[in-house]
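Subject: Predicted fold for Thymidylate kinase, 204 residues

User T.R. writes:
Posting the sequence so we have a shared reference for the thread.
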Amino acid sequence: MFITFEGIEGSGKTTQAKLLYQWLIDSGKEALFTREPGGTPAAEEIREFILTEREEPFPENAELFLYMAARSFHVENFIKPALENGTTVISDRFSDATIAYQGFGRGIPVEKIEYLNSIATKGLKPNITFLIDIPVEEGLRRIKKRKLDRIEKEAVEFHQRVREGYLQIAKREPDRVVVIDGRKKVEEIFEIIKTTIERKADAV
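User M.O. replies:
I've generated the structure tokens; pasting them so everyone works from the same file.
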């Protein structure tokens, strides 16, 4: 299975993704944890470039193309080989993030992003996506003590558009995207995730 976790900054998605990975490993399953942008040496270099603040203006299309380049490395050199080998892959963000951040957040036409995503992923889509949803103010409050990257420093209004983008994706694909209230306790969220995974596995 290919399982992805999405959410705005500070949603707790990374914590839940790592908990699921450890649970699968402890259960004797073959599983790998990865992230976007990143996941391979080349993609991690692109991540560093994207998230680093710089004096030169960062064109929106340049940002979009860099995300797609990183995703292509990730899919071709990490995700697809693992899935073909029968390994469950858990990714902290994937293609939905680009629609939410660059589409809804930046205002790039979603149709353009979906077209580029189809090329970068070669049509690969997650079996399940967990959207850990929280109010923007809560998410930003959670991350304020850490050193923020270029995207995290965007205005509140940007993050609100991103959140709305995620909720629109979930509304459009309810069979794939499971929305969970990120204000629940970590243990409560993870129980929902485990139950969903077990139900999905039984249906396969």
